[in-house]
Design goal:
Helix content is 38%, strand content 16%. By secondary structure, the chain is an alpha+beta fold. The longest helix has 17 residues, at 60-76. The radius of gyration is 16 Å and the shape is elongated.
């Protein structure tokens, strides 16, 4: 944790902060922290989290970092049409 004022979220709270519809389930958040999410580039991106015993917490800033890293990796994996041979 980089800042003492950073808010720690449960998986359920983190799921509610993601501005997409339908919202991911808390189970998806947990899965992203443990297994990651496979990007189009083939890289597995993990959501950074903290463990306190059996409890898992996610920093608010980690959600934005995860989204940015996933978008970056997804843009690397976009198939571009091949140029026609002349």
């Amino acid at each position: 944790m980089s800042d003492s004022t950073t808010k720690l979220l449960t998986c359920e709270q983190a799921a509610r902060r993601i501005p997409i519809s339908p919202r991911p389930s808390p189970n998806s958040i947990w899965r992203w922290t443990t297994r990651g999410c496979l990007a189009k580039s083939g890289v597995r991106v993990k959501l950074r989290s903290l463990r306190f015993g059996r409890r898992l917490r996610i920093e608010e800033t980690a959600l934005a970092e995860f989204a940015a890293e996933l978008a970056r990796e997804n843009s690397k994996g976009i198939d571009r049409p091949a140029k026609a041979a002349a």
